[in-house]
Design brief:
Among the domains are: 3-59; 144-225, 2-Layer Sandwich (Gyrase A, domain 2); 333-380, DNA polymerase, domain 1 (Orthogonal Bundle). The chain contains 17 helices and twelve strands. The protein has helices at 3-16, 21-33, 42-59, 67-79, 100-108, 131-141, 146-149, 168-174, 178-186, 209-220, 253-256, 272-279, 281-298, 305-316, 336-342, 345-355, 364-370, and strands spanning 86-89, 92-98, 118-122, 144-145, 150-156, 161-166, 191-196, 199-204, 223-225, 232-237, 244-249, 268-269.
């Protein structure tokens, strides 16, 4: 079938005005790519168009459909079948991540701090296929403290010094040098610092043994390199793409995106508020959709993506992330009766009485309470009936 014939068929489809432009453009692109195929006849193209129209009309929402109620039911019912445990993440045995119902609750409640914050860090073309280069990026991201690369950090009671014995193997693995550790200890400005091989000596000016013990703990926790908030990084080779991906315990999206070797277009965080602050509310909306979808897929629950999208739209439509609860969307409804039906009934009714609020009874909940027809489906249609005067017969008899 020639490209001109395909163009004519597509032009007829455009004039009908039923299908969205993006769908027609995609169809045209795919048909033209197969224009050399002898099996692609005008009859088959017509059949393809009819099937696409049929599939499109099947997924359309009926006018006045209660999409919110259906979305709530579609997410709520599978939620009753979810487990309440924390699982190992996607084959990475070293990391735990909250899944199932607790994670879904975290998402819809828009929690400021997730129970198990983590990031999936993809690497650029130069680093993603080489383990040694992936390790270099991981070293830049993972927080490394003195206690992570030392055999021991202790007080020598004979000389009243803090002695740091660095492990040569660990320092090499983490990309740390004695000079780096020496500079960090000097930065404490708590006394004289000296070293001998892999051992660092701190001779502090102390007042008591208790002060020396506090300084010992502070020295152990000195950060040598890495991104604040990321405690651990695990490298995993993905089977389907055959590339190395980093999984982190803890999140710090703005800082990680600045690390050389990180693919900024594919790196993600499960901390939705952090995504919003770093990339904006549209990115947060996508994060809500993706995180909710991953939780449901992990449990083997099939929920239409449009229900999840509706929840995400509702949570982010104001330009900020709002939870679905009494401190968010449900607690901010215009209807007094709808707010009272959700939680803390007496409080809402008293406040509304004091302020003299009116309820327009435009939603579902409030109409159920007062026993009226709910504005859904045929109940949303008002029929105006008028009695017209009967036309008199003007014909002469």
């Amino acid at each position: 079938m020639s490209i001109n014939e395909i163009s004519n068929q597509i032009e007829k489809l455009r004039k009908e005005g039923f299908l969205p432009t993006s769908l027609i453009d995609e169809l045209e692109k795919n048909l033209k790519a197969r224009s050399d195929d002898d099996n692609l006849t005008p009859k088959k193209v017509k059949k393809i168009v009819e099937e696409i129209k049929k599939a499109y009309f099947q997924v359309l929402v009926e006018p006045e459909e209660a999409v919110g109620t259906v979305a709530a039911q579609s997410l709520g019912e599978p939620g009753t079948q979810m487990t309440l445990k924390t699982f190992h993440y996607a084959g990475v045995a070293e990391l735990n991540v909250t899944l199932g119902l607790p994670r879904l609750i975290e998402i819809v409640d828009a929690r400021r701090n997730p129970a198990t914050p983590m990031m999936t860090i993809h690497l650029d073309e130069e680093h993603r296929h080489d383990l040694s280069k992936a390790k270099e990026v991981a070293r830049l991201i993972e927080t490394t403290r003195i206690e992570n690369v030392a055999l021991n950090v202790e007080i020598d009671l004979t000389t009243m010094q803090i002695v740091i014995n660095l492990d040569p193997e660990l320092t090499e693995d983490k990309g740390i040098t004695v000079e780096m550790a020496l500079e960090k200890v000097k930065g404490l400005k708590k006394g004289e610092v000296d070293f001998d091989g892999n051992t660092i000596f701190l001779t502090p000016e102390y007042e008591s043994l208790a002060d020396l013990q506090k300084l010992l703990e502070k020295t152990r926790g000195l950060t040598l390199k890495g991104v604040v908030g990321i405690e651990r990084v695990v490298i995993k080779r993905e089977r389907d793409t055959n590339e190395y991906v980093l999984y982190s315990e803890g999140t710090n999206l703005p800082e990680v995106l600045r690390i050389p070797g990180v693919d900024v277009s594919r790196t993600s965080s499960n901390h939705i508020h952090e995504v919003s602050q770093t990339l904006g509310v549209e990115a947060a909306r996508n994060a809500i959709i993706e995180e909710a979808r991953k939780v449901l897929d992990e449990q083997g629950l099939d929920v239409d993506i449009r229900h999840i999208m509706l929840v995400a739209d509702l949570m982010t439509v104001s330009g900020d992330i709002r939870q679905i609860g009494r401190h968010g969307i449900s607690g901010e409804k215009e209807s007094v009766l709808a707010r009272a039906a959700f939680e803390v009934t007496v409080k809402h009714l008293i406040e509304a009485s004091v302020k003299g609020e009116e309820d327009s009874l435009s939603g579902i909940t409030e109409n159920v309470i007062v026993g009226q027809l709910i504005p859904v489906g045929t109940g949303a249609i008002d029929l105006l009936m008028g009695q017209y005067p009967k036309q008199e017969d003007t014909e002469e008899t």
